[in-house]
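in:
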């Protein structure tokens, strides 16, 4: 997986946990939607979730993404994480909806405790349909020196559980091939039952032991 790097000295680690969604717009003629999520702070570095195969219009992903951002970004009124939901198609993947998560709307905490939000999902027409459930947590970048220079990464990549290279979304392929691709995507959750704080703490302790 290609990792973007930055040399910003004073930064924060913004963790976004994409939990689930309800009442997504039904894409026809797909019998059961297989959905995934793209998320980014900088559009040049987009992270992709694992594929939900069983939830249909009510998927569950439980994927965690880490973004290195500035203190000004955390405090700005208009700073946001852009999120798009897609359904795997036979010829191309279908846009389901989008969410713009504005940080100031929930003021995520920096003490390792997630801040949960339920956000409206908007279709391409602008109509609201569905709810996205997410959690956000802010950590001090200096607490995790091994993340120095990394601008965005999936938690599973971070702990080295999957070294597969994700492919571009939206290419022409069969639903079966797309499902297999997404299953091998590097953007999978390390442990669905761990809290944001526990996940980061375990990684930090492993780095100390390795050193």
């Amino acid at each position: 997986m290609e990792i973007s790097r930055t040399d910003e000295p004073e930064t924060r680690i913004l963790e976004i946990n994409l939990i689930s969604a309800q009442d997504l717009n039904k894409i026809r003629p797909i019998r059961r939607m297989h959905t995934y999520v793209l998320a980014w702070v900088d559009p040049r570095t987009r992270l992709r979730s694992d594929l939900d195969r069983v939830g249909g219009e009510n998927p569950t992903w439980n994927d965690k993404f880490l973004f290195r951002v500035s203190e000004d970004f955390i405090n700005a009124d208009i700073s946001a994480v852009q999120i798009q939901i897609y359904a795997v198609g036979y010829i191309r993947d279908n846009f389901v909806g989008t969410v713009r998560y504005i940080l100031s709307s929930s003021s995520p905490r920096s003490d390792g405790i997630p801040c949960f939000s339920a956000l409206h999902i908007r279709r391409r027409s602008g109509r609201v349909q569905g709810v996205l459930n997410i959690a956000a947590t802010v950590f001090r970048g200096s607490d995790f020196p091994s993340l120095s220079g990394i601008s965005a990464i999936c938690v599973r990549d971070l702990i080295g559980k999957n070294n597969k290279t994700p492919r571009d979304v939206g290419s022409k392929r069969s639903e079966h091939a797309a499902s297999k691709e997404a299953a091998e995507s590097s953007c999978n959750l390390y442990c669905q039952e761990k809290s944001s704080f526990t996940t980061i703490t375990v990684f930090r302790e492993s780095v100390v032991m390795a050193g």
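note: Confidence is low (pLDDT under 50) at residues 161-211.
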